[in-house]
């Protein structure tokens, strides 16, 4: 093996590291941060005080991370579990103190045939394991969205309404 890249990712130890799509790397460090890297460049990061106002930085620390390509699963030293959108780090799911103590690892259920049975109609499933000797399954409900045909119909209606309003406001417009 040959070292390809070296850079300072965190102040202190790195608790966990996960490889994501497009050569991205996710790290969880003892400095209370979770970071997404592209080579040695910081793409984006999470800090508790920015995502959960009112909770002191030192109260939580990211302990485990996994990146499914679409989602980023995180576990903390306080037993909390969260799922974020991988590219924007928008939080979709959060359970405070899902475990009694430190979450030691998280893993997404694969989208294979056996995994589909666990998923049911949910968008993702995350397993969390903790020092409390428990393994828990967290199901991310499928997010509701508008069908593309309805979105196109609404856009067409908006264009027609705009033209009619312009014609009404400026008689001779067309």
Automatic annotation (TrEMBL):
Subcellular location as annotated: Endoplasmic reticulum membrane
Coiled-coil regions listed:
none
Q: Does the keyword Membrane apply?
A: yes
Report the transmembrane regions from the record: 146-170
One GO term in the molecular function aspect is: guanyl-nucleotide exchange factor activity
Q: Choose any GO biological process term that the UniProt entry carries and state it.
A: regulation of COPII vesicle coating
Q: Which UniProt keywords apply?
A: Endoplasmic reticulum, ER-Golgi transport, Membrane, Protein transport, Repeat, Transmembrane, Transmembrane helix, Transport, WD repeat
How does this chain sit within the bilayer? Single-pass membrane protein
Q: What Pfam families does the database record attribute to this sequence?
A: WD40
Q: Name one GO cellular component term.
A: endoplasmic reticulum membrane
InterPro entries for this protein = Sec12-like, WD40/YVTN_repeat-like_dom_sf, WD40_repeat_dom_sf, WD40_rpt
The protein depicted here goes by the name PREB protein
User: Which species?
Assistant: Furnarius figulus
């Amino acid at each position: 093996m040959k070292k390809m890249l070296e850079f300072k990712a965190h102040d202190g130890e790195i608790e966990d590291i996960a490889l994501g799509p497009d050569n991205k790397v996710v790290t969880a460090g003892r400095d209370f941060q979770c970071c997404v890297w592209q080579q040695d460049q910081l793409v984006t990061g999470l800090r508790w005080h920015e995502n959960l106002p009112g909770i002191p930085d030192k109260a939580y620390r990211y302990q485990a991370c996994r990146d499914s390509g679409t989602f980023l699963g995180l576990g903390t030293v306080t037993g909390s579990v969260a799922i974020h959108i991988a590219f924007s780090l928008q939080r979709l799911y959060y359970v405070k103190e899902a475990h009694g103590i430190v979450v030691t690892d998280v893993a997404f259920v694969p989208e294979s045939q056996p995994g589909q049975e666990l998923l049911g109609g949910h968008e993702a499933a995350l397993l969390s394991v903790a020092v409390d000797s428990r393994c828990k399954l967290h199901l991310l409900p499928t997010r509701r969205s508008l069908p593309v045909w309805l979105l196109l119909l609404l856009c067409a209606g908006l264009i027609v309404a705009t033209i009619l309003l312009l014609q009404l406001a400026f008689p001779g417009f067309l």
